[in-house]
Amino acid sequence: MQKQIFRLYPPPHSEVSLKGLYLEHRLHCLGEAGRPFVYANFLASLDGRIALEDVHTGRPYLPKSLTTPADFRLFLELEAQADCLITHGGYLRALAEGVLGNILQIGAHPAGADLVAWRREQGLPPQPALAIASASLDFIIPDSVREHRQPVYIFTGEGADPVRVEAWRKEGYPVIFAGKGQMVEGRKLIPILGELGYRSIYLIAGPSMLDTVVRAGLLDRLYQTTTHQLMGGEAFRTMVPGPELGPAGHLCLRSLYFDPAGPGGAGQWFSRFDIQ
């Protein structure tokens, strides 16, 4: 039997299947040539933690109590609808060190095995392209990316180390400047991806990239799983690390679902917001 959850908003209230919940949004059909549809997805506790920091290294990590199979399934459904994923060098470094798992290919996990056929039925390429944002250009591209022949674009700022820029280019990867300093700016990154022909872009690059894309007014939709737990922790990460957003951060709730069987017996909400 498929997992059932409850729709709270919009009415009427009803019981629905978790599987296929986000596929129905057909995000891959919402973008246009030159103006891609950009969406992000975050997992947070009730007190706003998306990650805690290791007290010894300062490196962020995702507590296991925050994750659930239901949230991961929905993550994979969002990924399946993208023709380009925005990730970052920090993730690739953690992946190379074995700290994080590989989430760069459709169908790589049993929970999303059916999404390979779904993607093919939609006329999408077998795998999404990768846009890697990095200030340091210090990372390793995993073998799985080459094995699946995924297009790769490396984005950095104009102040990046020219030696590393040239090293990546010699390996055959395009390095594209999308920022005046060393950091990648959303207002430059997204239009470039649009010019490259990508229409559905899934932002999985973390809070700093979310911040710059929102401030540029280029985020179209935000998905958030909120687990019903107070996590605490003196050192933690939140969704938007920058200064006050103001009206740029105003969201409009479009749907809300409740899963009573969340982490550790606590429930969780699955919410969808559109940018006003």
Question: Your description of this structure?
Answer:
- The structure is a single chain.
- The protein is α/β, with parallel strands linked by helices and 276 residues long.
- The chain has one domain: Dihydrofolate Reductase, subunit A.
- Helices cover 22% and strands 26% of the residues.
- The protein is built from seven helices and 14 strands.
- It has helices spanning 69-80, 89-96, 115-121, 143-147, 162-170, 186-195, 207-215; strands spanning 4-9, 14-17, 37-45, 51-53, 60-61, 84-88, 129-133, 152-156, 175-177, 200-203, 221-227, 236-237, 251-259, 268-275.
- The strands form two sheets. An eleven-stranded mixed beta sheet has the order 2-1-13-14-11-3-10-6-7-8-9, sandwiched between helices. A three-stranded antiparallel beta sheet has the order 5-4-12, with no helix packed on it.
- The protein is globular and about 55 Å long.
- The termini are far apart.
- 35% of the residues are buried.
| Number of separate structural domains | 1
Reported for the largest beta sheet, the result is: 11 strands, mixed
Assigned CATH architecture:
3-Layer(aba) Sandwich
- Determine the mean pLDDT: 94
CATH topology: Dihydrofolate Reductase, subunit A
Strand content: 25-35%
